[in-house]
Each structure stands twice: as C-alpha cells, then as structure tokens.
Automatic annotation (TrEMBL):
Record's protein name: NAD binding dehydrogenase
Annotated Oxidoreductase putative C-terminal domain residues: 246-387
Gene Ontology molecular function, alphabetical: nucleotide binding
InterPro entries named in the record: Gfo/Idh/MocA-like_OxRdtase_N, Gfo/Idh/MocA_Oxidoreductase, NAD(P)-bd_dom_sf, OxRdtase_put_C
Gfo/Idh/MocA-like oxidoreductase N-terminal domain: residues covered: 92-243
Origin superkingdom: Eukaryota
Length: 468
C-alpha cells in the first residue's frame, strides 16, 4: 500500500481518464493582447485576476481557454474501459530520469511508463532513457524487455545526459522524439545555471518537441524559474506539468458546479497530513535537500487551492510553524536518524498559512508531520455563497461532499476507478496528436505560481519562527 507522497502521494487503485483544458503557456502575442506581462520579474499580480476558473458547461467545451477550461465529468473514459490503443505510426518518446515517477515503486500509484504503454500500445517507442545512474536505467530496461512491452523498449539507448543524447542524435541524423517526459529531481530543473537548466537546454536542442515536466517545477530560486517560464512561453511548445490532482473527476465536478452556478469562491482550506512514520527518505527530512514538506509534498494541495481560488496575492501570505525544537514538535516515531541533519535544515512539524487571493477570497493551508502509520489524511474545502464543497481523501478514495442552498444535507459523489495519472498523460498525448478534445490543465506558468506560493509559505513561516 502507499506509504508516502514524500515524493508526493498515493492512491490505492488505478484511476481513469478524463478530459480537460488547454492551460498551455499562451503565445507572447496573446499575452500582450490580454495585458499579461511577458517579462520577468513576474509576480502574482502580473496575470489578470481569473476568478474561479470554472469548468466548461456540460458537453465539454473542448480546448477553451481559461476561465472556461475543465473536464466533463459526465463523460469519463476510465483507463480500464478506454479503447485498446490501435496500431499506427510510431510515437517516439524520450524519458529523462529512470526513477519512481517514471517506472513506479511500492510507494504509490505513480508510473508514467505504465500509462504511456496503455495510451500508446504498440506505437510507443522509447528512443532514449537519460539518467546519470546508468546502472539503474539499464536494470529498468532489462525488466521492461523481459515483459510484454518489450517492443517499446528493446531499442532504447541509455544516455548519461541530455547533451550526450542530443550529440548522438545529431551525429546519426536521427529524428526528434514527439515528446520528452521529465522525471529528474527538481534540483536539476527550473533554473538558469548549468546543471539546473534542463528546460533551457531542451529548448536549445528540441524547441518543437512537447515536454511533460514533473512537479515541483524546481528546487532553486523562484526568480530563475520565472525566467524559465518566460522562455517556455516564448518557445510556445506544448508543456504539461504533473499536478495530476487537477484531473480528478471529483475536482472537475467541483469546477463544474462552480461554473454552472456562476459561483465566486469565497475561501479555500486545504489540509495535508503526512504519515511521517512511513517516510524513511532522509532527504525529505532535510530542508537543504528536498526543500521541506510544503515545497516538495504540500505543493499538490497549494496547487489545488490555487486551481479554485485563482492567483494569490503573495504579499498577503502569513505563516507559522511548529519547529522540531518546540514542545509540540517532538515526534516519537521518526524513521530516520534526524540527528545527522544539521539543526537549521530540520523540517517543521506543522506549517499553517493564510493568504488573500487576488479576487479577495481567503486561502488557508495546513501541512502536518504528525500522523503515524501509513495512510495520509488530506482534505480540501471550498466555500461560495450557499455552497460548501469538501474533497476528502483524493489520493486513496476520492469523495466529494457538497452542501447546497435549499438543503442542509450533504450530497456525496464518489467516482470509482478514477486515474488522474492516466488522464494527464492521455490528454498530453492527445494534445500532441490533435486527438479528441485534449486538455492540459497545468501549464508551466501556472505551476510556477504554485512553486512561488510554496516558497512564500516556507519563508514566511521561517521569518515568524520563535528561535531556540
Ligand atoms: N506527481 C506525483 O505524484 C509524483 C510522484 C513521485 C514523484 N514525483 C516527482 O518526480 C520527480 C522525481 O521523483 P522520483 O520519486 O522519481 O525520484 P527518484 O529519486 O526515484 O528518481 C530520480 C531519477 O532521476 C535521476 N537523475 C538525477 N539527476 C538527473 C539528471 N540531471 N538528468 C536525468 N536524470 C537525473 C536519478 O539518478 C534518479 O534515477 C520529483 O520532482 C518528484 O516530486 C511526482
């Protein structure tokens, strides 16, 4: 079962496919036309307030721009009932990172290769797997080649770096891939200096290829990530970021209700409770490595909050923490030896933040390192006039509870076999192939806003600390 989402977090069963909207970076010309800033430094106030970003009405409006993007929850296509992929032209893919997000682990349901295999079937051809840990990459490929998906991986070449792959492709005059899936750690991405500038190198070598990039978009300075975002906007290729919870049918149902009832979100309240006893990755407990639990893990819920509340007024963010050295911060079942981590790099046990959205609504977020066992407890609440929507347990068994005007009882929605990982990959491929009604729900610019919010929460809570 799942243990951590320290990488992110878990679902207990396969999910399904749904439809969504284009949130890909807007062309510079469009941004200018809409009065959206195109050059850094980009703060949160540079985009026009978007209100609640409601979903499209029933019938799924197709690739409409915000605020009318959204999945049609009433026309789901589950992975297990999706039509079998048909033979056709090869779909060449390059994977960067041979780790858990790409090939799965026992820590959760993430596994992009699995979803790509189911989406593309015999057409999938993984041309290159790039990872400095060549042994790990080769081991993974050997397993794939010993299975029924051998055809997709039998000609995959392992490269240590993107430079090496690009040079080899140029030397042999080979064709570019159709998509590059990026699952390298965030420390190597979203920056502008050598070694952290993966996207800038990608634009240099493969400007027309579509990129799927994992969250968080970086681990480095936010200002640099905005520079990368601007470069990607200018480059104008298809980019999707892995905030897969946006694709959950419960989440899209909430969007639909907001849209159909013309609601204005008044407040969001997100709570993310990790089961710390099961998090045995030392880096997760070390702020200098994984950047702390809000940036690495809570990011999914900060992102979902923004998905409903819109842009955040960053200057309004206030936050407090319970630190490891405070009486309420003492934990009895930490599974790593925390004493080897420098004191200043140890993570907070509780982080609580409040902010204003640009439309005036209030957002709040609590991340806790308090639960033991293995199951996480996560909830998102959204309020609007007469409405209270409660998304419960989105990782394991998503349920949506809604109180509406005219009835004090809660309605309950539970969509079975909902796989947001498949939905995001499926829509990404459809967007590349002009497939039926594709939607990309998380653009790089939008994901950078989430990244900025999580840093703001971390720095605000650190500034407010009562030091030992
Ligand atoms: N959306 C989700 O639910 C979810 C789940 C898990 C992980 N993730 C994200 O995926 C990313 C990777 O996490 P993971 O759990 O797969 O980590 P991991 O440590 O299992 O794997 C990362 C791999 O990247 C390789 N690598 C390191 N530097 C590289 C570089 N410069 N170029 C190419 N490869 C490089 C490493 O050798 C390793 O094999 C993180 O950003 C994480 O937050 C997201």
């Amino acid at each position: 079962m799942f243990t951590r989402f320290g990488a992110t977090r878990p679902l207990t069963r396969p999910l399904a496919r749904s439809y969504t909207a284009f949130a890909r970076p807007l062309p510079v010309s469009v941004r200018l036309a809409r009065g959206i800033a195109t050059s850094p430094p980009w703060g949160v106030n540079v985009t026009q307030p978007l209100g609640v970003n409601p979903s499209s009405p029933l019938g799924d409006g197709g690739p409409e721009d915000i605020p009318h993007h959204g999945i049609n929850v009433d026309k789901p296509v589950r992975m297990d009932t999706a039509p079998a992929p048909e033979p056709g032209k090869d779909f060449d893919i390059v994977m960067i990172g041979a780790g858990n997000i790409m090939f799965g682990s026992d820590q959760g349901p993430w596994n992009h290769s699995f979803r790509l295999e189911h989406k593309l079937g015999p057409r999938l051809k993984v041309k290159a797997l790039i990872d400095p840990n060549v042994a790990r990459a080769k081991e993974i490929l050997a397993k794939k080649c010993a299975s029924f998906v051998e055809q997709a991986y039998k000609d995959t070449i392992v490269y240590k770096s993107l430079d090496e792959y690009a040079a080899a492709l140029k030397a042999e005059g080979g064709a570019e891939p159709k998509a590059i899936i990026i699952g390298a750690p965030p420390a190597f991405r979203g920056g502008v200096s050598k070694g952290r500038n993966l996207e800038i190198d990608l634009i240099k070598f493969f400007p027309k290829v579509a990129y799927f990039i994992e969250k968080p978009v970086s681990a480095g300075p936010v200002a640099e990530t905005w520079e990368v975002a601007e470069d990607l906007v200018k480059n104008n290729n298809i980019v999707s970021v892995g905030y897969m919870l946006r694709y959950l049918r419960c989440v899209q149902k909430m969007k639909q209700i907001i849209h159909e009832n013309n609601l204005v979100v008044m407040a969001t309240n997100a709570r993310y409770s990790a089961a710390y006893e099961s998090i045995d990755k030392l880096a997760w407990w070390d702020k200098s490595k994984d950047m702390g639990p809000v940036i690495e893990q809570g990011t999914h819920f900060c992102d979902l909050s923004r998905y409903f509340g819109g842009d955040v007024n960053m200057d309004s963010v206030v936050a407090h923490s319970v630190e490891w050295y405070e009486e309420p911060g003492k934990l009895s079942k930490i599974p790593v030896d925390e004493s080897v981590i420098p004191k200043e790099d140890r993570i907070p046990r509780i982080t609580g933040a409040v902010w204003k959205y640009d439309n005036g609504a209030v957002g709040s977020f609590t991340h806790t390192v308090a639960l033991q066992g293995t199951a996480y407890a996560c909830e998102l609440e959204v309020w609007a006039d007469g409405y209270h929507m409660r998304l419960v347990d989105p990782y394991n068994a998503p349920v949506l509870l809604i109180r509406r005007p005219g009835d004090d009882h809660e309605e309950r929605y539970a969509f079975t076999d909902d796989d947001p990982f498949f939905s995001e990959i499926s829509n990404f491929i459809d967007a590349i192939e002009d497939g039926p009604n594709p939607h990309i729900l998380s653009s790089y610019v939008d994901a950078t806003k989430t990244y900025e919010l999580t840093w703001k929460i971390r720095t605000a809570s650190e500034a407010a600390r009562v030091t030992k």
